[in-house]
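Teaching note: in complex prediction, the entire set of molecules is handled at once rather than each chain in isolation. The prompt given to students was simply: 'Predict the structure of this complex.' The entities are:
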Amino acid sequence: MPTIQTVTILPSLPERLAPLLTLARNLWWTWTPRAIHLFQDMDRELWERCGHNPVALLGSIEQPRLEALERDKIFLARMNEVLEELDRYLNFQTWYGTASEGRAQGRIAYFSAEFGLHESLPFYSGGLGILAGDHMKSASDLGLPMVGVGLLYKHGYFQQYLNPDGWQLETYPLNEFDNMPLTLVRDEAGEPLTVSVEILGREVKARIWSLVVGRVPIYLLDTDVPTNTLADRQITSFLYGGSLETRLQQEMILGIGGFRALRALDLCHTVCHMNEGHSAFMAVERIRCLVEEQKLDFDEALEVVRATNIFTTHTPVPAGIDRFPPELMKRYFAGMVKQLGIGMDDFLALGRMNPADPAEPFCMAVLAIKTASQTNGVSKLHAEVSRRMWAEIWPRIPRHETPITHVTNGVHTLGWLSSEMARLYERYLGSRWIDEPANHAVWERVDLIPDFELWRSRERLREWLIAFARRRLVQQLKAKGAPGYQLDQAEEVLDPEALTIGFARRFATYKRANLIFRDPERLAAILNHKDRPVQIVFAGKAHPKDMEGKELIHLVIQMANRPEFRNRLVFIENYDIEVARNLVQGVDVWLNTPRRPNEASGTSGMKVVANGGLNLSILDGWWVEGYQGDNGWAIGAGEEYDDHNYQDDVESRLLYELLENTVVPMFYTRNSQNIPVEWVATIRNSIKSIAPFFNTNRMVEEYANSAYLPKIDTWHNLEKEQWREAKEICTWKKAVQQKWSGVSITDVQLPMEGTPKVGDRLPIRAAVEMDGLSPEEVRVEAYIGRLDAEGNIPEGHALPLLYTGERSERGHLYQGHLLCLSSGRIGLTLRCYPYRKGLSHKFELGLLTWWDVGEAAE
Ligand SMILES: *Cc1c(COP(=O)(O)O)cnc(C)c1O
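The expected output is the structure of the full assembly:
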């Protein structure tokens, strides 16, 4: 084979057009319509061919065209306006600037295995990546001092195409880093800056690339470095590809390498956020640095790291979580464990629900939970599921009190909004909706948009979607060598005036793409109604190894080929951000039929809202919080079933009934001006109730208020006093662990005479023996709730008792009052747990002792 030297040739832009490169290299343009139009107008055809990638566009545009643009005064004026807009964006006073005034400054590092930012950057696979991308965009809008950390994959996530029989095939295009808005980070000598991670005795090097999202940089690591072995160069080849061992290596690069990259870049890290467990080795490296440089012992370093780490879990099914066999971990982490100054068993315990079980695999989510002081799910329901899923980590704590909270997901409104709707909002809402998408009062103003204008925009958006679908179908058919008459048919597929439903997502089985096909005849009758036609646009990829998912796609294609569905059902191949954007902007109804409670949040339904689309969904994920009765439709009432077949029967029937009796009639009931008045009112309700809450600006503010800001303070306080507080907590925890078996509730006094009535206040007194701990270190609570059949209190709530300052011979005395709020039979008991200020939640030690008469009598 000949020796091939690669040379990168940079575009030569005329000087006056050079600022376009600045624009192209900041992803701010992706959510700024005027910037998009600017690139688009340079050469529309080339823009499409480049996959909407302005860096590639500027690199391949013909010189004569550039020279013409350089002399085009109007183009130059538009360019300068956009540049000024960018300048304003980067310099205006932000939410964070105000919120953090007078506080210590810090930096938040956000670790994620994927970032879904734009279709021209195909290193995302689905919801998790899109959420990370939207998180970055909102962090930029709000002015958070955030940096993203991830991996740069040599191959994009796969592109999907279907063979003529409707089976999914995959290709993995090579990402051309030089044609992306990436900058290779170099050291002072101009050499690529690298970090290295020890993998099985080899120092594997990774380069660092930067990507700019408004004000927020993202650093991406890539191991395709010439000095690495061939196998190591391929660690970052594929997103979620390769063997379990590749996965482990990737996660070591992401977590350990990613953290080292931040340090090499001199970006002091004060708070770290793990988006899913893939990056949890970051916590281990963080601990190692403190052990090595600050001379803390492992437990002390863990205190510091935990106090300033947060973890967001996204996966409600155990099978979706990374788990590594202990043998594999021992091979890969022998060196690291030595540096941490602990034994291998102690290390493996960090990734186990039951630390004492040597067979339990090492779980990345458990590692993340144990090294973070806030763990949250991505919707209220998902947090409930997560509390059940991870309850074993706190075996003594009632399941519903497992310390996992929720921060409900959102979407970056501007990134998903059509320019059509953006213009309407500018006219009627003013410009504040752009800077304050989370302000309810601003969205209330959609009431001012006249019905006919809102409806006309909806009609136009649907037409554009249909034009897009037809273009894509023609392309798909051409690629398969389809005969000309089929191309002609595709040019006319779908009806621009018919009620249009979108169904697009990963074809995972729990999402049940087949639910609507349960009764094909009934569906055909709905779609082919003479006066009230309905059509469905499908899109979605199945994971390459998921045969069941591929069967689902095959089923949809077979259905679409049936004569009774032709023209009413289409499948758009290669679901990505571009397809998603077109769909969520154009559809009238977004259909979502997951098997509850498997949809952690789901975000695509949120994307349709500001575009005037309506949700029709199972009450799962975010829709449990979003649905209000008058702002879309719920299939069922949030039931969960053991018999899946029966569930599918029931829920498909509910879906047909909703379509037949409610959705379709409402869409086609028009007033004298042909406007569906009730439908338009529902759109308004949907926008007003959903848009201000289910966006990432609100979500990022929540993360900032609940975690980022307080943890930045925590870091500074810890650092300022040379980690004194962490050391003290550590010493205290050890002492409490030793003494806790001597703590017991020895005497409880409840007034038992008579039958209390609603509104009565019942005094409660308790004595607690505490083996040398002081009353300030022991919190006592009454625990009250309805009794189940076995006489337990499954979901009680806690009522704190106060220390009286007195003691009897049975122990320190505490008291409180129970206010009887409702009638019925309730159970009541007492419990106590250790307390000290500075703990992140009351069960941080996992210790809890219940009132137990049997025990007290011993
Ligand atoms: C929004 C989005 C998702 C997330 O889909 P959900 O089914 O709502 O979780 C996945 N893929 C793409 C391309 C998206 O735009």
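Point out the following to students. The first helix runs from residue 19 to 24. The domain at 743-857 is CATH 2.60.40 (Immunoglobulin-like).
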